[in-house]
Amino acid sequence: MTSDYLWYIPNEVAPGHRGDEPQDGHNSLETLAGQALALERAGFSGALIGTGWGRPDTFTVATALAARTSTFSPLVAVRPGYWRPANLAASIATLDQLSGGRARVNIVSGKDDLAAYGDDDSDQSQRYERTAEFIELLRALWTREQVTYRGDHFAVTDSTVQPRVTPRPGRPHPPLYFGGASAAAERVSARLADVQLFWGEPRDDLAERIDRLRRLTEQQGRELPPLQFGLRITTVVRDTSEEAWDVAERKVADLAQKQADAGAPPVGYNPHRRRAVGQQRLYDLAERGDVLDDNLYTAPGRVGAGGAASTWLVGSAEDVAKSLRRYEDLGITHFILSDTPYRREIERQGEILLPLLRG
Question: For 320-352, how does the pLDDT look when each residue is reduced to its tens digit (9 = 90+)?
């Protein structure tokens, strides 16, 4: 299978996300469309668009960017509870039809500011049971008509989504990406997801998880095509390894200083993230050393970075391409890369990294 390379569009109200260049109109349609068009020119397939209460609505941003582009594929991050499955199924089907089959969906089950948009808090097992029903119902509404479904969390009667999703080669409907490292999350992914997304962990750790997920697909009685795997990671790339490490170390020093100076949590801080199993795995990596494998930099997580900013692949384009190919050898075929400043790094990595990966 040919690997797929996407980028990340943070979709934040405040400027300066993860060291991005603060500027007026940082989240305007012109700026975001400029990033999407730059991704097209560089050869990226599309981008994951960030989600969370307190951000611009992700689906609206994705729709606007699809309208401004011709090949850009928006990976729309959504949360069960913020959306009901029938509403999302109809919205994504419409976006997919209008964009000529470019829509993708990333299901996010981690906690957010639930009460702010009327959702209820629940324990982990119930959250993932609800997620499983959400995914089941999405897939049913995209592939069948007159759907009647009765679950513990969702129900529909004689429901038919219009317009109908057009099946395409190897793609019966918009692909469903899913993440999570807990046992409950992995059970959902093994049975129902199209792509399991990982954060940047050492290769041996991910090899173990991939092996476990493949066994789980059999234990869960998966009836879908084989589960695919993806990696979401920050890539710090320069012309030489020395230059890249100098940049990375200066960025970590800056993060540490900002954390020391901060009198309040940083913009976008999510207190639930530190309790998430997957995020805790990343924080624990720093205890094993600042650099793991060849060039997996774990120090950012030690100084307050979160999500894909917790671990970075650092080096020359050749170094980083070699590391990504080694992840590919494990069976990972979907890659979501990024670094800041976002626009400048789209162009840099599109020019010096992507050709090595495509080649």
Answer: 999 999 999 999 999 999 999 999 999 999 999
Name the strand (E) or helix (H) holding 332.
Answer: strand 332-338
Q: Are 58 and 95 in contact (CB under 8 A)?
A: no
Q: How far apart are the first and last CA of the chain?
A: 14
48-61 tens-digit pLDDT: 998 888 899 999 99
| Three-state SS at 5 | strand
Please name which of 24, 19, 18, 49 lies closest in space to residue 36, comparing C-alpha atoms.
49
Whether the CB-CB separation of 18 and 236 falls below 8 Å is answered with no
CA-to-CA dists, residue 210 to 65, 132, 213, 272, 327, angstroms: 33, 20, 5, 25, 11
**Threshold 0.85, pTM exceeds:** yes
Query: Taking a C-beta distance cutoff of 8 angstroms, is the pair 41, 350 a contact?
Result: yes
Long-range contacts of 116-121 (CB under 8 A, 24+ apart): 116/53, 116/54, 117/53, 117/81, 117/82, 119/79, 119/81, 119/82, 120/81
CB burial of residue 226 (10 Å; 0-12, 13-18, 19+): exposed
Residues 6 or more apart whose Cβ sits within 8 Å of residue 350: 38, 39, 41, 42, 43, 44
Residues 76, 146 contacting (CB under 8 angstroms): no
CA dist 41 and 218 (Å) reads 41
Q: Which one, of 174, 295, 166, 314, lies nearest residue 244 by Cα? A: 314
Residue 134: Cβ-neighbour burial (10 angstroms; 0-12, 13-18, 19+)? buried
- Is the separation of the CB atoms in 319 and 245 below 8 Å? no
Name the amino acid, one letter, at 21: E
Q: What token pair was written down for 350?
A: 């599109």
**Residue at 300: amino acid letter:** P
Residue 81: closest CA among 45, 108, 56: 108
Cα(239)–Cα(98) distance, integer angstroms: 40
